[in-house]
Amino acid sequence: MTASTDPDFRARLAALNAKFAATVPGTMDKIAQALAACNGSTQGGMPSAVSLHALHELLHGVAGSAGTFGYPTLGQEARRLEQQVRAAMKEGAGWDGVPAQIEQFLAWAARDPGAVEFD
């Protein structure tokens, strides 16, 4: 019997998906808090390295796990934002448009994190 036809496997996977789904609102709250910390720690237009790193790590976690648990669009958008934050960290510039994009992501995720299309 393959894993995809094993009823126990399907039940375990469904339980993991439900567990992940239950964490999404809390994770989005953490991202919002990290974004607020970034916005509150700007000097010369850039947030502190510590604030950016915390935001990057949260987005990275969502990007790496969301698709596995049935939220591919959530993961793709988190990956896109993670890459923008990483670029800002590396280049020390390019932060200006990122907060608005993260806020849009958070609003979208609050409506339906399992949506197939990001709008």
From TrEMBL:
List the keywords (alphabetical).
Answer: Two-component regulatory system
Which Pfam families does its entry note?
Hpt (PF01627)
Offer one example of a GO biological process linked to this entry: phosphorelay signal transduction system
Query: In Gene Ontology terms, what is one molecular function of this protein?
Result: protein kinase activity
- Asked whether the keyword RNA-binding is assigned, the reply is no
Q: Which InterPro entries match?
A: HPT_dom_sf (IPR036641), Sig_transdc_His_kin_Hpt_dom (IPR008207)
> Which residues are in the HPt domain?
19-105
Q: Report the protein name in the record.
A: Hpt domain protein
